[in-house]
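Field notebook, page 222. I keep forgetting to write these up properly, so this time I am using the form the group agreed on. The chain and the ligand, SN-glycerol-3-phosphate, are recorded exactly as supplied. Prediction of the bound pose follows.
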Amino acid sequence: MRLFLDTANIEEIREINRWGVLSGVTTNPTLVGKEGLTPEQVWKDILAEVDGDVSLETTEPQAPAMAEEGRRLAAMGDNAVVKVPMTPAGLQAGSKLVDEGIRINVTLVFSPAQAILAAEIGAYIVSPFLGRIDDAAADGMHALRQICQVYDVQGYDTQVLAASLRHPMHIVDAALAGADIATMPYEVFTKLVKHPLTEQGLEKFQSDWTELRKKLGSTEGA
Ligand code: G3P
């Protein structure tokens, strides 16, 4: 399972990219709006920083304008993937873009039925929002498992991107369910690396090493 950052903040992307584990980035209008720059500048910086797929979201509500916007977003870089919403207009614009060879990510997906529609138009990626399903008092992980199973049974090529992930166990369970990609905020990414026993163990190794150096230093001096 590949790991993506769900952010539009270039500093967060640069930091995680240095770890060597970042395979892509997802953005949405809310995230881009937090950056205080033009959307074009935000997208340009991210596309240049990341080698992998970067999802850029359309905002036009009607299909023809959404498709036109999608073409402009796709032209921003070879690694650009165009996000369209799971709506009739999104399906219409998305299928047109797929016909033109543009890779699309169908977003705001909350059910296996919607995921089937995304696969049927030949989407490159489908994005079920697990955390938001949980917020509505339903089981986001169960929906993800069903989507992965349906895609497996049907042999769909569309990649399943688990989105709206809120904590490390979401990532572990998404991997077990068979998701192709997990996208998460910076705060969740940095939690993946942490474990109290790693911190305690490192502290002990460092203090024992310092003791040893001290002892050797006093022996050498004697
Ligand atoms: O970007 C799509 C999705 O990951 C948003 O997540 O945390 O706003 O529900 P969230």
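OBSERVATIONS:
- The two ends are 57 Å apart (CA to CA).
- Residues 113 and 147 are 8 Å apart (CA to CA).
FOLLOW-UP: compare against the apo run.
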